[in-house]
Amino acid sequence: MAADQPAIRLTGLTKTFGAVNAVDGVDLDIAEGEFFSMLGPSGSGKTTVLRLIAGFEQPTSGTVSLFGQDVTDRAPFDRDVNTVFQDYALFPHMSVLDNVAYGLRVRGMPRRERHALAREALATVRLEGYGDRKPGQLSGGQRQRVALARATVVRPKALLLDEPLGALDLKLREQMQVELKELQRELGITFIFVTHDQEEALTLSDRIAVFNEGRIEQLGSPAEIYDKPVSPFVAAFVGTSNILDDTLSRLVLGRGGIHSVRPEKMSIGREDTAIHTDREVAGVLAEVIYVGSSTRLIVDLDIGTRVTVLEQNDADRVGEDERGSRVRVGWDERDTVALAAAPIPADDLPLLTRPEPATR
Amino acid sequence: MTVDTPTRPVGRPIVPAPRDTVARRGSVFLSRHPRLRLSLLLSAPMFWLGLVYIAALAALLITALWTVDTFTGTISQTWTLDNIIAVLTGSLYQTVTLRTVGVALLVTLVDILIALPIAFFMAKVASARLQRVLVIAVLMPLWASYLVKAYAWRSVLSRDGIFEWLVAPFGGQTPGYGLPATIITLSYLWLPYVILPIYAGLERVPDSLLEASGDLGGKTWSTLRLVVLPMIWPAIIAGSIFSFSLSLGDYITVNIVGGANQMLGNLVYTNVGAANNLPLAAAIALIPIVIIFAYLAAVRRTGALDNL
């Protein structure tokens, strides 16, 4: 099984650009064979962390270790990790086959052997017969696959993916997500996946680190991140959350602190119907947005806040013609998540060894 | 089902429809007739190009086929191939042609070797601010007169010039006036024309390609040889066309720093002036034109012009 040392260990990693702390003291262990996502808004430092691992940037302080070896001072070509770039970075003047074989070529492998391996790699990404084309003749999804084949043909110990699906349309993106997951299982190596798409991160990852302002705000499994966000930032960034601040919490829940409730955990009913939940608050239906499988209802509560409720579409749903009417919104106590008021210090974050929570 | 009728907010002025003017009708007419639009657009430059380039070239070719009356010194318009044959067979013309092509090739080579690292630094290493400063610095010599620069090099390369003073402590000495001095001076003169296209070519190479090469295990030399050079090859060719053709036609620099050496331009110059043989001068002037065409054809075969 996996070695007892992590595939990648970051300690106190800091990178400053001028006066800006792009990465601010990140400590992180990533296990061998893990599908690890770094999720955050643009400018949160996730891509910089990836570039520090690849060696394109030098950290201001802190270290990067691969399988117990400190590689902080090594050049990118001296590190056993490979990158799939956001813009794919395929060499436009080379054929697809030469692109894939490039890593083998600079390692001095003879032409026939490297072309054989490159053809094999193209087959694993379902691009047999495309070897003679130029990258310019391929579609976005095909270029994406060439970039994957090129980065994996040299058998790196970890693959770094910088928002690789960002430029693809929705259908293709969903298809590539499945292929990425399969490829990772097949190769058995660590994938580090940078994305700003929370759904993508939740779908693909074994673990997710949510980045905010150069720090890891929360680290955990997708379910932990989604069901038990530790801060208002995570609650709002990963999915949608209804946040109750200290005053509202005292008013509705009878206790202080900041709390969040997911829209799909809330129920809505017309004023005269009971909804049988632990908490109930009255309000006015402000907006009804039909989103296909469900309907998003925005309600202005009488206590002075606006919440979003997500309802499955069924026959008796609250309809668009009821805008402006009085409604009741309710939720159960067990769906109320207490949030830390401020971002918690990185030292207190759960690391690799964190046990699964006993109860959900 | 109710149909909403759009209502105008009270107090908001009505946005007027565009007025129907003659200019507007003309624009509409032109936008419906793209061919007419194109011919109006191109007629002035095409007229200029035809008059200045094609007519001048044709006049040159025709003059080369005339001859000069040896007694009166006037051009007699009798058709003859004598001038062309003299230029092709005369040993003087052959020697000077070879010398001129050799100088032009060496100048081009020197310029490319100097321009590559400078352009790379400008495009890939320097900060945005330094980049602008460097572009200005590269262009700055073009603000000074060609003659001033050539005479400056004459001074630099003279017996008691700066060059001698610089290299003397290391046992060196100035090359003096001659072909090496000509190559040095011409390289200096045309360097901006070679740096700029290569710089523009490097600007178009995304940084991520260099990172991808390093990421895949390519060290500096592999990255340059396999990724950078093939991608900027058209830019290098473009720069070389400048330095090669400009060197081929030069006669002033070689006069100033070239000692007794002559280049094709000098032969043209003396035949137009002192020798008063315009047809022969025209025939000599055809040599660099033919060479440039041959060079462009050779370049085209390499495929370097496909991506321009």
Find the structural class of chain B using helix and strand composition.
mainly alpha
Q: For the report, how would you describe the main beta sheet of chain A?
A: 6 strands, mixed
* Average pLDDT over all residues of chain B: 88
Number of helices of chain A: 9
Q: What do we call the CATH topology of the largest domain in chain A? A: Rossmann fold
The beta-strand count of chain B equals 2
In angstroms, what separates the terminal alpha carbons of chain A?
28 Å
What proportion of the residues of chain B is helical, as a percent range? over 70%
The CATH class of the largest domain in chain B is Mainly Alpha
Any overview of this molecule?
- The complex is a heterodimer of chains A (360) and B (308).
- With 360 residues, chain A is of the alpha+beta class.
- Chain A is 25% helix and 30% strand.
- Chain A contains nine helices and 18 strands.
- In chain A, a hairpin with a 2-residue loop joins strand 9 and strand 10.
- In chain A, helix 3 packs across helix 4.
- Residues 343-360 of chain A have low confidence and may be disordered.
- Chain B has 13 helices and two strands; from the N terminus they run H-H-E-E-H-H-H-H-H-H-H-H-H-H-H.
- Chain B is extended and about 95 Å long.
- The A-B interface holds A 54-56, 75-77, 82-83, 85-87, 89-93, 102-103, 105-107, 150-151, 154 and B 206, 208-209, 211-219, 222, 226-227, 230-231.
Name the features.
heterodimer, A: 360 residues, alpha+beta, Rossmann fold, OB fold (Dihydrolipoamide Acetyltransferase, E2P), 2 domains, 6-stranded mixed beta sheet, 5-stranded antiparallel beta sheet, 9 helices, 18 strands, 25% helix, disordered C terminus, B: 308 residues, mainly alpha, MetI-like fold, 1% strand, extended
